[in-house]
Specification:
Length: 193
């Protein structure tokens, strides 16, 4: 079986045609066979025809298509699915990580207000861990390395520092923000903003 069969190369749209997820071809085939989604047959001229499983099996495999071989012959792998009954855009809260703290704080030191290069910043615990501070959204901020070293295991007040803004848990964001065309699938471009 081809390695692409287990890569997220199929874009999933809700029934309003908004991008909400990605799936592997194996998952896409199951969704199509179970009538929970139809595939878009996207032509060279960008025409889009929603196509159900039975009809999809009859489509010819074009040169630009990925396909899998079966006992019945080759089956084209869809690049875009449209869900039959789901119309919401799911939302989720970003998971806590240093990268996401950096994103929440916009790459700006929360003590100096200076825009940082990746090599200049690290994560500071507002209430130091040595004093019972937790590693959470509400206690971690992006700080310039030198400021963080100078602060050491003191509170901002003890170190003579002031936070630009209090750290907080980011709000929930639509899942579409996290969708990236990592495999360069051309058919996705018109659906991703």
């Amino acid at each position: 079986m081809s390695s692409f069969l287990h890569k997220n190369i199929v874009l999933v749209l809700n029934k309003c045609w908004q991008a909400i997820d990605t799936k592997t071809p194996a998952q896409a085939f199951c969704m199509m066979a179970g009538d929970s989604a139809t595939a878009l047959d996207i032509g060279e001229d960008a025409t889009m025809t929603p196509t159900r499983w039975e009809d999809w099996l009859q489509l010819p495999v074009r040169e630009r298509d990925n396909a899998i071989g079966t006992a019945r012959g080759e089956i084209r792998v869809p690049t875009v699915l449209v869900l039959a009954r789901f119309d919401r855009v799911p939302r989720r809260r970003p998971r806590f990580s240093a990268r996401n703290v950096w994103a929440r704080d916009g790459g700006v030191c929360q003590y100096t207000g200076r825009k940082l290069k990746p090599s200049e910043g690290n994560i500071d615990h507002v209430v130091p861990r040595s004093r019972g501070g937790s590693t959470t959204w509400e206690n971690c901020v992006l700080a310039h390395r030198e400021v963080n070293t100078r602060k050491a295991d003191r509170t901002p007040q003890e170190a003579g520092l002031r936070l630009i803004r209090q750290p907080a848990t980011p709000r929930e964001l639509p899942t579409t923000i996290g969708l990236h065309n990592a495999h360069g699938v051309q058919d996705w471009e018109m659906f991703l903003v």
